[in-house]
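REQUEST ID: PR-0412
SUBMITTED BY: lab tech R.K.
PRIORITY: routine
TASK: structure prediction, single protein chain
INPUT:
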Amino acid sequence: MKHFRFLSIAGAALLLLSGCAANVETASVEGMKAEGSAFQNALHKEYVELALMEKDEGDDEDTVNFIEKAKKSGMGEDVGPQPLTEREIPADGKQDLANARVNLVNKLWQGASDITPGAAARAQAMFDCWMQEKEENFQPKHIARCRSEFDKAYAQLAIPVAKKPEPKMEKKMPPPLPLPGPYTVYFDTDSADVDDAGMVVIKQAYADYRLHKPGKVWIAGHTDTRGSKQYNMGLSRYRSNEVGNRLMELGVSRKVVEKARHGEDAPAVNSGDNKDERMNRRVSIVFMR
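STATUS: complete
OUTPUT:
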């Protein structure tokens, strides 16, 4: 099952009502005059190509997904690589995709979309293609092709050696975009160790931290109700410290990190006393302005 939270419900519903409507929308977006930067215009073409491929395969949902991203890019809106949390990725693909997204976001953040816009757009679109095919996970040749194309485009990305300061101009800044998150890392019983699934979430949070630059990263540790309250308060502190350390090792500034411990006092699931509940053994990562 796919989770395209960023699609408008009305737009998605109209496109999925009939193949005819999807065809009209695809043709309209394909023929639109792109109005963005070189990178955004290249993204428009790449996402149109992906939408047409998915339409030929009869995949209406991904056709809608990619044509919506093509439309936004063509209108000059910022469109980033899709977060892993919006798709159900098999376990054998999560780590590779998480690493690839972090690397790609780092290059884009450093200016690769300005220096090599065509390669940057190709890398982003092929990352989304790779993730979409891996979620379906029944066409290994398609998965390998998207990944190979991503690797080729990523190898061509270049970043500026030094940025010249931009001239100061008096202009009205647009309102800030809503911050992504929250992110949740789950733990085994009586453990503060971060497993592979937890690292995928942490790397996702770090990549989005680089893109959105929040003023504060709030990290809160929790436990289930097994054991005493005093013991659980200490365990929640160890969990929040572990997640905070992993984020700072990746590059999150120590100055913006704030940690809290709640023990068993703020459960996600009201399970009663002395109950083993995975949903309560967690650390939440929240971005704040």
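NOTES: The longest helix spans residues 229-250.
REVIEWED BY: pending
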